[in-house]
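Final report, closing paragraph on structural work. Over the funding period we assembled a curated collection of sequence-structure pairs, and we close with a single example.
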Amino acid sequence: MTDGLNSTIQPAVPKLSLKTLTYGKGNVRTVIVGNGNGETGFVVKDVLTSLGYAEASITNVAKMVAHVPPEWLGRYLIPTPSGNQEMITLNEAGLFFFLARSDKPAALPMQKWVAGEVLPAIRKTGTYSIQTKPMTAGELITAQARLAIEHENRIETLIRTQAAMSIQLNEIIQQIRPTAYSRLDLQEGKEHVPLWETSYLLGTGSNRLFWFLRDHGILISGKRSRYTVSQKYKDLGYFTVVQDFSNGKRPSDLIMATLKGRRWLHGLACRGMLDSILDHSALVQRATPAGCPPPSFSDFEPKP
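Its predicted structure, as stored:
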């Protein structure tokens, strides 16, 4: 042939053993002829890759080994995912000849690896594999203890990370949550706001709020209207009653929530006391202030 190689393509017959050896971060395929006693061929393309040659050199294998004596070269059909491919190999003498003339820093370590590990193992057992030394009982106990400590450390790190993420998430939620319960929504600029309007500021319907306050003795039956405010909550300054002449017939009682009363209702809602009557959106939007005491129905007996 024109490239000076052995022109005989050796088929992948049963006596042809194909092995892939791990070298560094790559692999080197080998062809062993016979039952472990024959000649070992190293695929040139893999050798060039392991030594760090440029892609252009790897694709021009014949040129890279043109200086190697032809009798130290071979050609074999090597199985690949895309089918059998003809590849050039270097036998033992050819590999050392090529490595000795290579200017790559990895050439000498590969020589030592082949001469000190691969070839002696192949001659002795017919194959090469990385041998691991069995652990002693003491080494095994130490290794198990180290793994246990590493596992505990990973769990502890995970717990700390989850806690930090939870705090950060709560901070983000507080920042982006709509301020449905901000004091601005309670119309701080007004002294008196009709109770029915206050219900919408809190996030509930007027009937639900009236019934809730009635059930807790804050509202009682009225003479001119269905409901009026108990004297206790009038005296506390939470609510007041004014006469409403809007119906054009006879005046009725219009319950007004003072600023103090609206803040009190806001506190109840903030601590979850009004959850049974609040709209879903109000429940989602409610921003519970830090330091709110646990819900207690004693809150319905406010002190002046």
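Confidence is low (pLDDT under 50) at residues 1-14, 176-184, 287-297. Residues 183-300 form one domain. We thank the funder for supporting this effort.
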